[in-house]
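re: that chain from earlier
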Amino acid sequence: MPFKDFIDYLQLEKNYSTHTVLAYENDLRDFSNFAEENFDYKDIKRVNYSIVRSWIVRLVDSGISNRTVNRKMSSLKTYYKFLLKTGQIEENPMAKHKSLKTNKKLQVPFSENEIDQVINLLAEEEGFVGLRNKLIVELFYATGMRRTELVNLKVADVSFYQNTLKVLGKRNKERIIPIIPSTLKTLEQYLDERSRLENIKDERYLLLSEKGVKIYETLVYRIINSYFSKASEKVKKSPHILRHSFATHLLNEGADLNAVKELLGHASLASTQVYTHNSIAQLKQVYKSAHPRNSNKD
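^ sequence. v structure.
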């Protein structure tokens, strides 16, 4: 397999997810094909930056966004750093590369009303699937966890004694998240319904299909997109928007930024600060309506 030592490094040492590793491998394959077809380089270990720059031009000309180009360049940078570290090259062709400028996308969270509408819709559905889907929505909004974290939840991760959930995040980093009473109640109801499944194959995992196997990420996306399409006119309706809503609503209610950072499982505060934009808008509204010297309260 091409790039096998690098792929092993990402999986075994960096503990990257299967999805992330696949993205890195695809980017390297694409660049390798480009270098061979256009410059007759069969080994991209030996390329110089001018070839990388030519690829960037090709990508931009093809209509790919600067954000996507930057992601692909990040894959190359990581690869060449690995080659330098392991002594396979003496100079890094990406050493002086600078990322393309991008417009920051402001994710629009679901409103509390939209989330309530979806939960009420799900409350009317009977049976195992309806209860499971309701739990999925509630878990996203009550914990702010990532989609891959939710899919990999295990029954043993739930503590009804402590009212908490253990989540395994990026780089296999564990965090403990409190669970609100309403979500705990839905969890209890779901586990009771789950125990009635005829054939459970993936016993350890919390969220299952009707056939008793662990659910998958695409299914989770479809569930969220389907139900929120009934309650929201927003363009993007995904699990990540629910994570965004969790963080934004907490900050709007005065939650400490560092506390939200820990709940989200972010490595740095900079990642959490993305969610403060909507909170600032809320603060401006409060300021406008409440400040005694503001003559435009109405």
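The mean pLDDT is 88.
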